Amino acid sequence: MRTPEFKEEFDQVIEALRSDRYEGILEDRFGAVKYGGNHPGSAFEGKYNTEYGIRVDTDEHIYLLRCDAFRMNFYCSCYEGKRLDEHIRRAERGIRFVDYDGEDLFRIPDGEKIVVTTKLNEAIEHKCRYIDDEHVEVGSNLYHINEFEEKMHRNGAVYRPLREKAVERQEVQAGGKKNRVDSQKVR
């Protein structure tokens, strides 16, 4: 993407984000705070404080900006538009978790958490991110979905979604043994 055309487009996007058209989000700290106040739906919890996100679409690319107005840090990632939109569409199907035989156990939305209970009965929450239909990020580790199940099996751990939206829930004993089935909603 390091073409003269891309560099020109990138510079145009950054200049536009400094302008009044985009409330001067990149102009200064005041502009970033103003943008955040006018667009509360763009807020999300960052590592240290509330941050704001903005998406800018051009004909070819999608720019995703993360703005930490408090620290005056801005991060910009650029993607080929069609590829990112396709990835987002696939991620909306959710993250699959499978048993030892590769059969579906449950799905969670991208960004939701699971609870892993160790054989010492320690419950640990992990945020999960969709990578593709066969891979998942659990906490800060990347796994093939079968590899995750195998690791849980080796360690004698059980895992389940943190929040259930489905009526039926299966808590799984790693290794494919289902040790609990609830047919009530979990709150």
Give a structural overview.
By secondary structure, this protein is an alpha+beta fold. The protein folds into 2 domains: 4-86, no CATH class; 93-161, no CATH class. 25% of the residues lie in helices and 40% in strands. The protein is built from 4 helices and 13 strands. It has helices at 4-18, 29-38, 81-91, 145-155; strands spanning 43-45, 50-57, 61-68, 73-80, 95-98, 104-108, 113-117, 123-132, 135-138, 141-144, 158-161, 169-173, 177-182. The strands form 3 sheets. The protein has a 7-stranded antiparallel β-sheet. It has a 4-stranded antiparallel β-sheet with strand order 1-2-3-4. The radius of gyration is 21 Å and the shape is elongated. The model is unreliable at 166-187 (pLDDT under 50).
The average pLDDT is: 84
Structural category is alpha+beta
Output the number of helix runs.
4
Order of helices and strands: HHEEEEHEEEEEEHEEE
Number of domains: 2
Total number of beta strands: 13
Cα distance spanning the termini: 46 Å
Percent helix among the residues?
A: 25-40%
- What Rg do the Cα atoms give? 21 Å
Largest β sheet strand count, sense and barrel closure: 7 strands, antiparallel
Shape: elongated
Which strand-content bin applies to the residues?
A: 35-45%
Q: Return residue spans where pLDDT drops below 50 for at least 5 consecutive residues.
A: 166-187
Strand arrangement in the largest pleated sheet: 10-9-8-7-11-12-13
What is the structure about, briefly put?
The chain has 187 residues and is an alpha+beta fold.
